[in-house]
Amino acid sequence: MSEEIKNEVVEEATTPKRGRKSTGKTFTEAEVAAMLKEASEQAAQKAVEAYIAAHPTPTVQLTAQKEEMVTLLYMGAVAEGSVVHLGDKLGDIMGRGGTRTISKTVFFENMGTPVINRLKDRRLIVVDGLTDEERDRYGVNYTDGELVGKEIYYKLLDMDADTVVSIFRKACYRHKELIAALYADAYNAHDNRVNQMLIERLQKASKQVEKNGMFTAILKDMARALGDSEEE
């Protein structure tokens, strides 16, 4: 081979071809789709994290609901120390000043005729636990002075005559009976706080609701005792 031909071959082999340079590794369509999916998932995750950071979920505190209770006071004219049965579910309550606190649900579910009658005539008093609407519904929205609570009842004998008569006039019928029973018990126990002048005033006031008065028995016994004293 001639020297001329040899040089031409070398030059052809070592001269680079013209055109675009290589860009490195190429990706298949599946690989590109996978990368796009991963990028999308990462963007979505970051968006969720950003929202949670900006809107923290409030801590939920579960508090047990306190059961509503009703407090009852018995102020019927019964013998001291007597126990009044309100029913199998409501149980017993001490008469004249006794109290009992029970569940409102149990109270409403067991308001039989005996309980309703005692509520109506004010022998049984709802001290607290009912709303105004519930008091209206069951007729226990008491008026001022209608009731003689035990904090007053047990102090009546120590009050002056004008105050006692005023309380008596304002009291409902059943609580007028309660006051009459209180003075009858005190008189029979020879309590010197029961005097004829007061009993006569109470008798006069009681005739506005009861024709023969509520203190007749005491006055008759006082008259008899006075007659016996004069004979002696």
Tell me what the structure shows.
The radius of gyration is 48 Å and the shape is rod-shaped. Helix 7 (161-170) packs parallel to helix 9 and helix 9 (196-206) runs antiparallel to helix 10 (216-231). Mean pLDDT is 82; it is low at 7-13. The protein starts with a helix and ends with a helix. Helix content is 50%, strand content 11%. The strands form 2 sheets. Strands 4-1-5 form a 3-stranded antiparallel beta sheet. A two-stranded antiparallel sheet has the order 2-3. The chain has helices spanning 3-14, 29-54, 104-109, 113-120, 132-138, 150-153, 161-170, 173-188, 196-206, 216-231, and strands at 69-74, 83-87, 91-94, 98-103, 124-128. Strand 2 (83-87) and strand 3 (91-94) form a beta hairpin. By secondary structure, the protein is mostly helical.
Provide keyphrases for this structure.
232 residues, mainly alpha, two-stranded antiparallel sheet, 5 strands, 11% strand
Going across the biggest sheet, name each strand in turn.
4-1-5
Overall, the morphology is: rod-shaped
Give the N-terminus to C-terminus distance in angstroms: 181 Å
Estimated helix fraction: 40-55%
Query: How large is the count of helical segments?
Result: 10
Structural class of the helices, strands and pairings?
mainly alpha
Along the chain, the helix and strand elements come as HHEEEEHHEHHHHHH
β-strand percent reads: 5-15%
Give unreliable regions as ranges.
Answer: 7-13
Count of strand segments? 5
Largest sheet: 3 strands, antiparallel
Quaternary structure annotation: single chain
Mean pLDDT: 82
Q: Give Rg in angstroms.
A: 48 Å
